[in-house]
Fold this protein.
Amino acid sequence: MEELLNILREMHPDVDFENEEHLIDNGILDSMDIVSLITEIGEGFDVTITAADIIPANFNSAKALYALIQRLEDEA
Amino acid sequence: MHHNILTDLNRTAREKPDKLAFSDGVTGLTFRELHRQSRAVGTFLHQRGVYRKPVVIFMEKSPQEVAAFFGTVAGGCFYVPIDAEMPSGRIQMILDNVKSPLVICDGQTLETAGSFRLEGAEAVLYDDVAATEPDDEALADIYDRAIDTDPIYIVFTSGSTGIPKGVAACHRSVQDYVEQLSEVLGFDEDTVFGSQTPLYFDACLKEVYSTIRYGATTYLIPKNLFSIPVALVEYLNEHRINTLCWVVSALTMISAFSTFDVVKPLYLRTVAFGSEVFPLKQLRLWRKALPDVSFTNLYGPTEGTGMCCYYHVEREFQEGESIPIGRPFPNREILLLTGDGRLAEAGEEGEICIRGTTLTLGYYNDPERTTAVFVQNPLQSAYPEQIYRTGDIGKYNEAGELLFVSRKDYQIKHMGHRVELGEVEVNVSMLPGVQMAACIYDEKRGKIVLYYVGDTAEGELTAALKQRLPRYMLPNRLIRLDRLPQTSNGKIDRVGLKKLYLEPAHK
C-alpha cells in the first residue's frame, strides 16, 4: 500500500490519498494521470491492468486501487 | 470560397434544418436551433452596441457554447473562449489582454465570472442572451459589412515569458483551412464526429466548422469518458461516430490497455491525430484492430490556423522510424529555412516556416511578440509577404516527405498540448519561498520534471501552482535541490539537469 501511495503522491503531492474517496468523480485524477498511473503500477507491482478494470470504482480511492492490484496479483 | 464563415451555417440551416448539428449525447441542437440561437446572440450584441469587439465566452463545453461562437460572429464580433478548467490566474491574464465588454456565461460559470476583475465588462447569462428575438435585418447589415480578414476568434497558447499569447484568426484562414482539411480527410454530410478536444483550442475547428459546412453531426464527448476506455468505445458505437480527430494520448488511452479485446469501434472510417508523436506500437494496435479505417497524421501550429500538413499512414513503420508530417495542404507552402536564410537542401535541417492564406492575424494586443515570428519572407524583398516561423526544425526524407526533428527552444508537446517550459519556470519562480526553478522534459515517459530551490514543500508548491497554470502544464515530478547546476556563464545548466535526472538514482 505504501508503494502505491508513493506513486500517487509523486503525481499529486497536494492530495490526501489516504482519505480521498472520489479521485475520479471529483476530477483529481484525469485520463493522463490514469495512463501514467497504470504504467507505474505495471512497473512497481508486476500486474497488468486492462481496459475492463479501468472504471471509476477501481480508481476512486487508493484503497480501491490497492484492492484491484491485490486481486490481479492473486489471479496471476 | 465565401468571405464569411456564416455563409455555411445559413445554407445548412436552410437545407437540413431538422438534422442534429451538435450534441453532448444527452441534449443537442439541430441546425435550425443552432441558427436561431446564434442569431439571437448576434442580435443581443447589436442591441448592446457591441461591434467589432472581442466577446469572452465562459461556458462549459456544450452545443450552446458552439451557438455562442457563431452568434458572436453574427454580431460582427470575435469570440474568446475560456473555460472553468483554466486556472484563475490565467483567466485573469486573458481578460486583461482582450478587454472584452461582455462575458457570456452559463449557469455553471456565472458566479465564478464575478470573482474576476472585469474592468467594466458585463457578465451575462447565455440563456437570457439566447432568448433575444432575432433582428434579421440588423444581422444582414452586419453580414454585408464583414470582410474576410476580420477576426472571428482568439485562442490562447503558452508563452515562454509566463504570459499566454492570444492567436487571432480571421474568416478567410478558417474557411481555407476547413476546405482543404475536409477534402484531404473526406468529410461529408454523413460524417459523425466525436469531439475530444476542448473548445478553447483551435483543435476544435475541425469538427465545429466542418459540421456547419457539410451539415454533418458532432458529438461533444464528455471528458470523464476519456478515463474509462470501454465506456468511451461504447459511446462511439452508441452514436455511430465514424470520424475522430483526437490527440495521440486519447487514442493511446484506448489501445494501450487491450480495450480492443473487449469492444471495438464499429463505425469508424477516419482517424486523424496530431500534435505529438504517435508511439508506433500503439498505432499498430489501432491499425490491426481496424484495418479498414484510414489514419492520418496532421501537423500545424495554432498560428497557422489549425493544421497545415498531413500524411496518410499507408505503410508499416520500422522501430525508430518516425511518422512523417508529410506535405502541406493545398494553398499553403512550407519553407524549410536554414540559419543563414536559404532553403534547406534535401536531407538538411531547417526551420519549418509557413506561407499563405492559412496564417492567422498574429498575437492579439501583442505587436512585439507578433513581429518576432510573423516576418517578411527572407527569400524575396520585392513586395510585403508574411511568413510564420514555427520554431520547429524539420527535414525531408528520401521520399520527399517532411519530418519533424526537434524544437529551436524550450517548447515541448506534452499530452497533445503545446507547453513552453519557460512559462512553467516563470510561474514557479513567482511563488513565495521559491528561489530558483528549472524544468526539463522526460520525453520517454512524457513527464515535465521540475527542479527547484526553496523552502516550499512539494505539496504546497503544487497546490499554489494549480492556481496559476492549466493542468496539462503542471510538473509531473518535483525535485527539490540545494542548488541548481550552472553553466560557466552563470545560466541554469539544463543539460546538466537532464544528465542528473537520467542517472539511475533518480529514476
The two ends of chain B are 54 Å apart (CA to CA).
